[in-house]
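Example 3.
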Amino acid sequence: MNSLELAWKIRRHGVEMTRISKGSHIASILSLADILGVLYSDILKYDVGNPKLEERDRFILSKGHAGAAVYSALAEVGFFPVDELMTHYADGSRLSGHISHKGVPGIEFSTGSLGHGLSVGVGMALAAKKDKKNHRVIVTLGDGECNEGSVWEAVLFANHFKLSNLIVIIDHNKMQSLTYCDDTIAITPMEEKWKAFGWNVIEVDGHDHNQLRTSLSINPNLLEKPTCIVAHTVKGKGISFMESDILWHYRSPQGEEYEAAVAELEEAKP
Amino acid sequence: MRDTFVRTLTDLAEKDKNVMLVTGDLGFGVLKNYWETYPEQFINAGIAEQNMTGLAAGMALEGKIVFTYSIGNFPTLRCLEQIRNDAAYHNANVKIVAVGGGFAYGALGMSHHATEDIAIMRALPDVIVLSPGDIIETEAAVKSLYEWEGTGYLRLGRGGGRAVHNGPIDFEIGKAIPILEGSRVAIFSTGEILEEANKAAIELNQLGISTGLYSFPTVKPIDAELIQRVAKEVDLIVTVEEHNILGGFGGAVAEVLAGTFGNRAHFERIGLEDRYSEIVGSQEYLRDSYGMSAYKIVNKISNLVVSGYVIHET
């Protein structure tokens, strides 16, 4: 499956999963769909038959509330049956709202409380360096998540220890829980902050698969610093009435809204 | 205790290259020998405990046995959620080491007094809590913690430290260590306050009150079997901890006793009475001020016994 098809599947599953579960975060899932589509189609090294493959790339979703998008990607590439996605949020399911590794093959790490994933990725990258292993560690952060002080502790550390095998992707959709990031705790300019902390910074359109692929194909051995890909995204991307509307951080698509969302997706099917 | 910990860990690091020591920028003059000898197994994470603990979990999940090191409440309370979500939930081999349990940092003040850490760490599922009573227990605790698969907490006392035990001990995670036998009173002690509990037990015996003494280097899992046995044998069980009496060691013993039928023993807790330390002084001064010096322990126990409150007629 190519990255455009996978991204579309993630969006389609996301709408269905949040409808059935009456759950939140569809806009975050849509924002992240292209990034995950490219990662799981073209970038990450993994083995669905051996989720703990030693040489796998480590992928951590630090913005754990978009877990449904990762579950969708994992199911589509074959880690577990696609049907199981619809148990998301359900009693007895292994697919919790915020991403959890317990019993779910392919999930590297559980998150849900913001500001945790980057430090763990830092530890994994440091261990890989010490053991002279060649896999990469890729951590996806939200821009709102960058409010957390622990993120910046890890940013300082990764620079100091020259963790070139560590890549951060910021899903920079400019919105967080209650309103726009810059109306909450101003984070702009994101790129300059990471540069000032010593990171290699690449800006991309987070919905342009070619740009994502190119930026994620960097050879860590050529650098002596960690890389931050600031992916400019649109919250709710792909469903016009959800785009950049804070309502859809929490709202679940039901009835006519659900049907309209599906119609838009079907129209855009690759 | 601190020095015993570093010495023991240095020996382990020599044998196992996966042993890692991560400090939150503390240990001046203490960790130097370790980092000079095993620089590849040492990381200074800076003054950033959340990141220290998160990265420790990340390294542990890649096969390292990671000891995080700091003082007072910094490696526990400051980064509690990283311990819970990142280390414990993932069964990561992270060993959290705090130097300065209780009032060890005496005159530095309340911020540096660890007096709720046992209760808080004990509440985390799959986290073992070790609080050795002297340097002999410390050495055994470090070795056991190294061998333990999963997340653990090691609460240490001061820099130097003395031995209370006269010789080798039989150390096992989850087991208390008997020091003195006694028929009327049993003192249960955890952590470095053992030195005060030991003095108190000796004096009580000299006063004619037969008093046993048990050190609990493991608070979790607690030695329920021993507690239940002793509760049938003596008139009074007293826990002693350099810690809040709520939720910590006394709380753990109380949970066992409350769940047991037919106890003979009355139960009392000695520790900080649900308050913060707010006076200035040395560890000895603070222990006495807050009622946990040997002298205060003897007073409390002898008053309880003499009052007849805990003496059984049968």
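The interface with chain A takes residues 40, 43, 45-46, 48, 50-51, 53-64, 66, 81-82, 85-86, 89-90 of chain B (CB under 8 Å). The two ends of chain B are 44 Å apart (CA to CA).
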